[in-house]
Amino acid sequence: MENKEILTESISDLLKNNFNDAIITDNKLCFIVDKDMYRVRMPNQGEQALVEHKRNLMQLEYGKQEGCVVKAKLIRDLKENNVVDIEQLNEEKEVLIKELKKYWFILATRDSEDEKKIAEYTEKINKIQNALQDVSVDISTYLIPCLQSRLEKFYLEYITVLCTEISVDNEWKRVWNTFEEFNLVDASLSNKAIANMTWLLLSRR
């Protein structure tokens, strides 16, 4: 599955719910795909240790591969070669986040009967969210080759494999037994699981 596709769906899910963590219960987050109920949960200590061990092994493997580069060097090379200024994009991202928070606050404190203003602020929020998503995806896409981004992707996918469950006859069972199974499934399920795991991890930090 493509990094850009995963990130786009993750951000889309986060923005759709305005980062509302009220639906997270006992460190678990439920979602539905094709009428089946799934959930992601936080890893236990054993699972956390396992995924960190696997990530360390992957770091050694990635480090041996030709073209592997650390984030700082990649950012510097992109700027020096006039490809893109990642630092500038990050500054734009921070401005958009501040703007988004401002309008969320304005909307939350607005008189609910002022429908015209509510519609106006809602439209501004949607535009800012779309711009924020575009910048975030651009940053992630340019940084895909770097070691840190590859390790973050691996960590998120592996923890999703360990901690995604499906409800079968009122019991929760693991969806994937191996990382290989996860990589073979329809991306609509795996991407949805990753998006929800991203949300859960962000909400618990």
Attribute tags:
205 residues, alpha+beta, four-stranded antiparallel beta sheet, 8 helices, 10% strand, flat
Q: Give me the number of helical elements.
A: 8
% residues in beta strands: 5-15%
Helicity, in percent? 55-70%
Rg computed from alpha carbons, rounded to a whole number of angstroms: 19 Å
The figure for the number of domains is: 1
Number of DSSP E strands: 4
Give the overall form. flat
Structural class: alpha+beta
Helix/strand order: HEEHHHHHEEHH
In which order are the strands of the major sheet placed? 1-2-3-4
- Average pLDDT: 85
Summarize the SSE layout with pairings.
Layout: H1 3-16, E1 28-33, E2 36-41, H2 45-64, H3 71-80, H4 86-108, H5 115-143, H6 147-163, E3 164-168, E4 171-174, H7 179-184, H8 187-204
Antiparallel strand pairs: 1-2, 2-3, 3-4
Characterise this structure.
By secondary structure, this protein is α+β, with helices and mostly antiparallel strands. The protein has one domain (3-204). Helices cover 67% and strands 10% of the residues. The protein is built from eight helices and four strands; from the N terminus they run αββαααααββαα. Helix 1 (3-16) packs antiparallel against helix 5 and helix 2 runs antiparallel to helix 6 (147-163). Strands 1-2-3-4 form a four-stranded antiparallel sheet.
Concise account of the structure shown:
With 205 residues, the chain is of the alpha+beta class. 67% of the residues lie in helices and 10% in strands.
